[in-house]
Design brief:
This protein has 451 residues and is of the alpha/beta class. The chain is built from twelve helices and 23 strands. The protein has helices spanning 43-47, 74-80, 100-113, 127-136, 152-157, 185-202, 223-227, 275-278, 326-340, 365-377, 403-412, 442-450, and strands at residues 9-13, 19-20, 36-40, 68-69, 84-85, 89-94, 118-122, 144-148, 164-168, 206-210, 230-235, 242-250, 258-264, 267-270, 289-296, 299-311, 319-322, 347-353, 385-387, 390-391, 397-398, 417-421, 435-439. The chain has a nine-stranded mixed beta sheet. It has a seven-stranded mixed beta sheet with strand order 17-18-16-15-19-22-23. It binds thymidine-5'-diphosphate and magnesium ion. The site of magnesium ion (MG) has 4 residues, from helix 3.
Length: 451
């Protein structure tokens, strides 16, 4: 029998990284068209020699010490889980102008201030532009070095000897020997691959900046996110100077933490009391406004929910929301109707979370219901009352995580009354000045507030 000819090349999808041994038009992995590119087979595989894998029980593996290097910026460290990790690679994404370069230059300066040598590699801006930013930020530290060139390979060669490096950005460099223009999927993958390989080999923490798409995800192939240890997203509304930093993925810590900054004249400053950002105590109580205490990572913050119901002659009333998912709004309206007798089918409903905050925490349910009931019954809720609890389809109020932390925050902010689930078990010691009202059912709360 004729011996099959051994393949010398294979084809890899530039989008998802799937491998095919034949050239096909449509990627078998992600279904994208025309994304397969030829690559040489690794030599051992081509020669048919595969080294036998060495088996080791997990329990006998040595645990390497986790070496954290604080970034010197508390909000950033909170999101990272305590600082950079040696050899760890972070991808920082965000809209143009949100402040990615500013944040990283500030981090370089803060680290340099703590005696670390830092390197900022830029393919986006000229040295002059960066010097201008550094002046604005008042950076005088010596240990912040700058490389602005197009030859990434040479610049990565300089990383050795540094204790922190930034590559700004993945989309602005082009590596020779790789197909495509700068920013194309194959180039972005190659640039990210080469940069992270350098960081891992030298044990230097590195941040790569990544552009994002209109949909808010990191531009370029999805594989970029698999290649790094941490993916951070930096966001903020154009009309506001507040910026939020979240981890989409974090191999070294939690993805729940939120970093809150304000962009000021001299750079990004931490917002240490975020409750006051999303909630401001007004002089009068208006129907439709209720305060919840949401948990962002380990941090409780007061969020103001606003609901407005407006009678409509049309058979299909509108449900519009910002900061609360519209499906969740519909579900809570259905629970209010069936379990509490509050009808909304002839009203348009608008719901909004003040300050542009987006609430994912189920503990916000009770405050959303309170705001809706208050608007539909046209009865204002006292301004010193807040709500913590999840609402189930049976109309029950369910306990949530870390209620005592949330109550402590409510007490600190001067709330006098808080509604929580009757199923909550709290520590014996109660924060000062706050009355806790426990309810089993949503209807109990609605009756008390809107009678
Ligand atoms: P930048 O860091 O260049 O954004 P990115 O790298 O994400 O594109 O930030 C640009 C914006 O931030 C720009 O509109 C100017 C503003 N800014 C300030 O308001 N204060 C400052 O101290 C700095 C440096 C920038
Ligand atoms: Mg930039």
């Amino acid at each position: 029998m004729a011996k099959a000819k051994r393949a010398s090349a294979r084809y890899r999808c530039a989008e998802c990284g799937a491998v095919s041994m034949t050239m096909v038009g449509k990627c078998p992995g992600c279904g994208a068209w025309g994304t397969l590119e030829e690559e040489a087979l690794p030599r051992e595989a081509a020669a048919g020699r595969v080294a036998g894998p060495r088996l080791e029980p997990v329990s006998s593996l040595a645990v390497p010490p986790e070496e954290r290097v604080p970034s010197g910026i508390a909000e950033l460290d909170r999101v990272l889980g305590g600082g950079w990790i040696k050899g760890g690679v972070v991808l920082l994404g965000g809209e143009p102008g949100v402040g990615k370069s500013t944040l990283l230059l500030q981090a370089c300066a803060a680290m340099a201030g703590a005696g670390h040598k830092t390197l900022y590699i830029s393919g986006e801006e000229s040295a002059g532009q960066i010097a201008h930013r550094a002046k604005r930020l008042g950076i005088r530290e010596k240990n912040v070095d700058m490389l602005c060139d197009s030859d990434l390979e040479a610049m990565l060669g300089a990383v050795s000897g540094y204790e922190f490096a930034v590559v700004d950005s993945v989309q602005s460099f082009r590596l020779d020997g790789e197909n495509g223009w700068a920013g194309s999927p194959s180039q972005a993958r190659a640039v990210a691959g080469r940069s992270s390989e350098t960081a891992k080999r030298l044990g230097v923490p590195m941040v790569m900046v990544g552009h994002i798409t209109k949909q808010g995800t990191i531009a370029g192939p999805k594989i970029l996110e698999h290649m790094v240890d941490v993916v951070l997203l930096f966001s903020g509304e154009r009309s506001s100077s507040h910026r939020l930093l979240r981890a989409e993925k974090n191999r070294f810590g939690s993805t729940d933490e939120l970093g809150i900054f304000e962009m000021e004249e001299g750079g990004l400053a931490a917002v240490t009391d975020p409750s006051h950002l999303y909630w401001s105590k007004g002089p009068v109580s208006v129907p439709g406004v209720a305060i919840g205490v949401s948990l962002e990572g380990s941090r409780p913050l007061a969020a103001e929910i606003q609901a407005l119901s407006c009678p409509t002659p049309f058979p299909y009333p509108k449900r519009t929301s910002r900061g609360v998912e519209v499906n969740r709004l519909q579900l809570l309206l259905a629970v209010l109707e069936r379990r509490c007798g509050i009808l909304s089918r002839s009203s348009d409903i608008y719901a909004n979370v003040a300050g542009g905050l987006s609430l994912q925490d189920p503990a916000a349910d009770l405050s959303i219901c309170a705001a809706l009931a208050s608007s539909l019954r046209d009865v204002a809720i006292p301004g010193d009352t807040c709500f913590i609890g999840e609402v189930g389809l049976a109309g029950e109020v369910r306990p949530v995580a870390r209620t005592h932390l949330r109550i402590r925050e409510a007490s600190r902010l001067g709330f006098k009354n808080v509604f929580i689930s009757a199923g909550e078990r709290l520590p014996a010691e109660k924060p000062p000045g706050i009355e806790i009202t426990k309810v089993f059912a949503l209807s109990q709360m609605v009756e008390r507030l809107t009678k």
